[in-house]
Amino acid sequence: MTYILKNNVNEYVLKHKIGYGATCECYLGQKINENSSEKYAIKIFEKNKYIFYSNEVSFLSELNDNSNIIKLYEYGQGVLTPISNTDNNTNDNITNDNANEKTVYYQIMEYAINGELKDYVKDTSSRIPEKISAKIFMKIVKAVKYLHENDIAHCDLKPENILLDKNFNPKINDFGFSQKFDGKNGNFLLRKRSRTPRYSSPDVRLALTKGYNGIKNDIFSLGVLLFVITIGNFPFDTSTYSDDKYKFIIKGRYNQFWEFFNHIKISDEFKDLINNLINLTPNKRLSTDEILKHPWLIKQLGDNYETICNTSNQDCTNNDDDIDKDIIDELSSRKKLL
Ligand SMILES: Nc1ncnc2c1ncn2[C@@H]1O[C@H](COP(=O)(O)OP(=O)(O)O)[C@@H](O)[C@H]1O
Ligand SMILES: [Mg+2]
């Protein structure tokens, strides 16, 4: 189905759906009556999802200068009208179906043409090499550090919410569940639950009674995310005592946890980093600064470590400045198999 989205200033044609989640549908769109062929990702929220729309807008409208965070260009309320279009390549011959038009909330966003990082993770037998996952992870961690420095906890970090642009540069997306904490007063405790149980820390289960530290929960999710993108499988099902793998992390018996993955070749530095991200005790989890200095990253990145670590994620007007050939080669060869 094709749609037209109109607000007070602009008109967009929504060509086809490129993704969806629990809160919105996302379409590939273009401005009508403009010579530019610039493509946008246009997220459409039904009125009953306003809370997620407004939450995301409140964060993303503040965060427009980091090259590893998805950009929000325009947002608001608009009218969405289904159309029948006899010629997909032009905007001619459009017939509006005004009877079915509806008012929605929309976000016009940077289009991450290579989709979700999750789709590039296959299985344990076809893994992304540690050298490449280290580079991707480094960029994600630097962007999370920036979020935390701005007193924002993402609360839903997972490979589905990491999008890839034309150069396969990772972009953190989906701020529908993010929360602001009052860092200056030392009050880091958040009470709303974060979203995806498989990536949530044990502390989140206590959220409604005691609150939890949003930064430390994001770090835990980064641990699960790193494991998934590097090993091609989940480290455990849930971070509870009843989980047959996580129970060994709770008991501090890390060697027994890793025995489940004995058949996979994994470096000791990688295991050490994971152990320090998914720790039961929030205060024992590393900070983003400590992650960036971890021996696994230093070893995997080798001669590139200093350059990558010190390159600012400050937005470059043109993302072409941020090209990593190793990431492009690995992920584009995987894309062919999707
Ligand atoms: N800027 C974008 N570029 C490309 N695809 C996108 C973009 N934004 C969203 N999508 C697609 O739509 C899906 C759902 O969007 P998301 O923001 O994660 O909403 P939800 O809160 O519903 O999960 C994403 O996982 C992705 O596949
Ligand atoms: Mg999502």
Could you describe the 3D structure shown?
With 338 residues, the chain is α+β, with helices and mostly antiparallel strands. The mean pLDDT is 90. The chain folds into 2 domains: 2-110, Phosphorylase Kinase, domain 1 (2-Layer Sandwich), CATH 3.30.200.20; 118-335, Transferase(Phosphotransferase), domain 1 (Orthogonal Bundle), CATH 1.10.510.10. Strands 1-2-3-4-7-5 form a 6-stranded antiparallel β-barrel. The radius of gyration is 21 Å and the shape is globular. The protein has helices at 50-60, 130-149, 207-210, 214-231, 246-250, 254-259, 268-275, 288-292, 295-301, 305-310, 325-336; strands at 2-6, 11-20, 25-31, 40-45, 72-85, 94-96, 102-110, 152-153, 162-164, 170-172, 179-180, 189-190, 212-213. The protein contains 11 helices and 13 strands. The two termini are 24 Å apart. The protein binds adenosine-5'-diphosphate (ADP) and magnesium ion (MG).
Ligand catalogue: adenosine-5'-diphosphate, magnesium ion
The count of DSSP E runs of length 2 or more, i.e. the number of strands, is: 13
| CATH architecture group name of the largest domain | Orthogonal Bundle
Runs in which pLDDT lies below 50 for 5 or more consecutive residues are none
| SSE series | EEEEHEEEHEEEEEHEHHHHHHHH
Task: Classify the secondary structure makeup into a structural class.
Answer: alpha+beta
Q: Work out the helix count.
A: 11
Radius of gyration: 21 Å
Instruction: Please state roughly what percent of the residues sit in beta strands, choosing from under 5%, 5-15%, 15-25%, 25-35%, 35-45% or over 45%.
Output: 15-25%
Q: Major beta sheet, specifics?
A: 6 strands, antiparallel, barrel
Distance linking N and C termini: 24 Å
